[in-house]
């Protein structure tokens, strides 16, 4: 199981895409949870999610924590497939609950009530690349996979030697 979660090639393009996506979501999560980067912090974010979007408080907290911790996971490349799927679910939720009604484009000129879904679609596309391809280069997933594969190979070698020597 852990092997399929962490398997990846040393693809630097996927690695860069993963890191950039992670930085963006870490930033958004840190705004919502830690009040960093001019964010509102956990209390105000929870209030916005529960009172304005009518999400249950548990789901609201999971969304906020998901952005922060998935961002960290993507930056370092640890369990990147899971982190990427959390991002996909978060972005689908954002589209469905808020942004779909505003169309495709972001509100660059302040001429509409809210932002459309173009950012969310890009985030989903990048996250799906990571979910399918794995973490790529510069990732802890790659190191974990090599370690686990090495351990399994040594167990197979020991079993093979035992069978051969009998």
Explain how this protein is built.
With 166 residues, this protein is mainly alpha-helical. It has one domain. It is 73% helix and 0% strand. It contains seven helices and no strands. It has helices at 2-6, 12-34, 41-52, 57-76, 80-99, 118-133, 140-165. Helix 2 (12-34) runs antiparallel to helix 4 (57-76), helix 2 (12-34) crosses helix 6 (118-133) and helix 3 packs across helix 4 (57-76). It is elongated and about 65 Å long. 32% of the residues are buried. The model has no long low-confidence stretch (mean pLDDT 91).
Keywords:
166 residues; elongated
Summarize the structure.
By secondary structure, the chain is mainly α. It has helices spanning 2-6, 12-34, 41-52, 57-76, 80-99, 118-133, 140-165.
Rounded mean pLDDT score: 91
What's the order of the H and E elements? HHHHHHH
State the distance separating the first and last CA atoms. Answer: 31 Å
Q: Gyration radius, to the nearest Å?
A: 20 Å
Principal-axis shape: elongated
Q: Can you count the beta strands?
A: 0
Beta content comes to under 5%
Pick out the low-confidence regions: none
Which secondary-structure class do the elements indicate? mainly alpha
Helix amount: over 70%
Report the major sheet: none
Number of domains: 1
- Count of separate DSSP helical elements: 7
